[in-house]
Write a structure and sequence with these properties.
This protein is an alpha+beta fold and 194 residues long. The protein is built from five helices and five strands. β2 and β3 form a beta hairpin. The chain starts with 8 loop residues before the first strand and ends with a strand. Bound molecules: zinc ion (ZN). The site of zinc ion has 6 residues, from α2.
Length: 194
């Protein structure tokens, strides 16, 4: 199941997050930390204001398992969004020198319109954040499970910093551009002669 590229489209750009300037890498690392803390604060404040929760139990093992799981669920959300647009995603594991082994989703050989590609990229940030926050409010107020959900909200937002940088870059292209996801960046295609 691959979405073909219209025959009159040609490659116009290749962009990889890992090949951006050092200051971009620093900005991403800094923003990841800041957004993790900000999202954690906002999520706890939101649950504290909308429920009777006054204290929060924590369980270190549950937290570790929950945070590893949420990174996998983040990638699965990208995969489901690819599926929603008729694309079969590929699951990959890659070693990255700076942060160790990462599990990620890509869809080489499939081509999405700009806004579809944006939706795939931002699906975990928007949908998963809403689902996790709703679950934290509804299911387990004050338990170690609540604490794990709130930390998962923060980690999911932090994990979406890469997605936000890619989305920002993608938005600089016109709406009729097609994108091929390479896992950590994209190849952009435009109609020949434009
Ligand atoms: Zn992501």
């Amino acid at each position: 199941m691959a979405k073909p590229l219209p025959s009159d489209y040609v490659e116009v750009a290749r962009w990889m997050l890992g090949q951006t300037p050092v200051r971009t890498a620093i900005a991403i690392a800094g923003l990841t930390l800041v957004l993790f803390l900000a999202a954690l604060f906002v999520a706890i404040a939101f649950v504290a204001m909308t429920t009777d929760m006054r204290e929060l139990d924590t369980s270190f093992p549950m937290m570790v398992v929950g945070l590893v799981l949420i990174l996998a669920i983040h990638e699965l959300t990208h995969a489901l969004a690819f599926r929603a647009f008729g694309v079969r995603p590929r699951f990959r594991i890659r070693r990255r020198a700076k942060i160790g082994t990462v599990f990620y989703v890509s869809a080489p050989g499939s081509y999405l319109r700009r806004d579809e590609y944006l939706a795939v990229g931002l699906a975990p940030l928007v949908l998963l954040t809403l689902i996790l926050l709703s679950a934290a409010v509804l299911i387990a107020v004050g338990s170690a499970f609540t604490a794990t959900l709130l930390a998962a909200v923060a980690l999911n937002v932090a994990a979406a910093v890469d997605d936000m940088f890619i989305a920002y870059e993608v938005l600089s292209y016109p709406g009729e551009t097609y994108f091929e996801d390479t896992g950590y960046g994209f190849i952009a295609y435009a109609r020949a002669g434009t």
